[in-house]
C-alpha cells in the first residue's frame, strides 16, 4: 500500500444506505478530499465507507479499501481502485492509520468509535504525529462530545486534549481545517502530473 500516497481515512457505519443523509454527506466529503488531492481510504465495505469511496471515485480521485473478513459486511464496495482483505481488526486499524494525514469520523457504531479513539490515543501519546481528527455531524455525536468534555473536567484527559478534535456540520469547514492542519502543516506538495498530494520527506 506504500504507493497510494497521502490518504484521508473516513470512518463510519456500514449500515447507512444511499437514501440517508449520512451517506450523502459522506459522498460529499469523499469528493472534497479527492479534489484536495488525497487518496480516500475506508474500511472498504458498504454504508458510509461505500459513500466516501464513491464520492472520491466519481470525482476522479483514488479510492482504496481495507476490507475486514467477516461473515457479514465483508464484500468490497464497487467504488475502489484498490482493496485488500484483512483477517484481523488490529491489522486493519494499523493500515487505516499508517498512510493517513487526517481522519474523518462520520456517524457510526462501536467499530467507528473504536477507530476514533485508536487514532486519538496514538496522537495523544505522540505515537503518531498530530494529524487532524474531524468529527462530522454535531447532533449525532453530541453525547459523545459531552462525555469527552466530562473526561477533561474530571482530569482523566488533559484540557488540551480537547484540541485534538474538530467538530463540524460543514464540508467547507472540514476542508479548510484539513488544508490548514494537514496539507500546510506537513508540507504536502501536489506533483505536476498527478491529482494527488505527495509528501516530500519520509513520514
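-> sequence recovered:
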Amino acid at each position: 500500500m506504500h504507493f497510494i500516497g497521502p490518504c484521508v481515512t473516513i470512518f463510519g457505519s456500514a449500515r447507512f444506505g444511499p437514501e440517508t443523509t449520512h451517506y450523502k454527506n459522506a459522498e460529499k466529503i469523499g469528493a472534497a478530499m479527492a479534489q484536495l488531492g488525497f487518496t480516500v481510504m475506508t474500511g472498504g465495505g458498504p454504508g458510509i465507507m461505500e459513500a466516501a469511496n464513491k464520492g472520491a471515485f466519481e470525482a476522479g480521485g483514488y479510492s482504496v479499501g481495507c476490507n475486514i473478513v467477516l461473515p457479514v459486511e465483508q464484500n468490497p464496495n464497487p467504488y475502489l481502485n484498490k482493496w485488500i482483505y484483512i483477517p484481523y481488526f488490529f491489522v486493519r486499524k494499523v493500515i487505516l492509520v499508517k498512510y493517513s494525514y487526517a481522519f474523518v469520523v462520520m456517524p457510526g457504531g462501536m467499530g467507528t468509535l473504536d477507530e476514533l479513539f485508536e487514532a486519538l490515543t496514538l496522537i495523544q501519546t505522540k505515537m503518531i504525529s498530530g494529524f487532524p481528527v474531524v468529527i462530522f455531524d454535531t447532533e449525532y455525536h453530541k453525547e459523545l462530545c459531552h462525555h469527552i468534555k466530562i473526561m477533561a473536567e474530571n482530569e482523566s484527559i488533559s484540557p488540551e486534549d480537547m484540541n485534538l478534535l474538530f467538530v463540524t456540520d460543514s464540508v467547507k469547514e472540514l476542508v479548510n481545517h484539513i488544508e490548514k492542519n494537514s496539507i500546510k502543516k506537513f508540507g504536502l506538495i501536489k506533483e505536476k502530473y498527478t491529482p494527488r498530494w505527495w509528501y516530500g520527506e519520509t513520514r
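The radius of gyration is 16 Å.
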